[in-house]
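Predict fold of Integral membrane protein TerC; 233 aa.
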Amino acid sequence: MDFLSGELAARFLGVLMIDLILSGDNAVVIALAVRQLHGKTRKRAIFWGAFGAVALRLIFAAVITYLLRIPLLQAIGAVLLVWIAWKLLFQDHEEPEEDVEAAGNIWEAIRIIIAADAIMSLDNVVALVGVSGGNLWLLVFGLALTIPLIVWGSTILSALMDRLPWLVYVGSGVLIYVAVEMFFKDRVIHDWLGGSLEGIEWMIGVGAAVAFMLFGWWYARRVRRREAAPRVR
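Predicted 3D structure, encoded as tokens:
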């Protein structure tokens, strides 16, 4: 049977691996975005965030050949992802007047989740389309499998972030690493660099992620000290 063919089995395993690896990025974004929500509100935000991620992947899968022709699309997406990582990391430490509803607003969380998913889903879809080898059923299976993986992953991560706040910095660092990776994968940027950084992009990504996490830790300490200091009138 064709279903049992070695090639199809290999592609099936490939789709599983791609889903397990790439769904982690989406789970990190959702966990960061919902960490200030609680109970049923958090569960709803996680569900709709995962649903939005899969819906975007379906749309991108339908128009992937056109999207890949847009110059600097991934580079622009990388810059936007850095902004989202900044917003998610520092929303706890914004000035009070700027943070009135951010903490408990489910729609704000969903908006951030879908914006980040829109940026990261292009890479995910390219990988899934390539591994599935044009097999529509494998592609649909891979996209459908994304929902439980993202929901379970983000639920576990958000619970861990409640207990271990330092994981918030790690999560933001992951997003920075993904952003750097996306930037260097952009066709225009890759051609412009001429492969001069090939093999060390991951080092730049790790360095940027660590620098971002350290800056976040320093900034959080600075804000806490300022808030703890007595106010002179």
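The radius of gyration is 19 Å.
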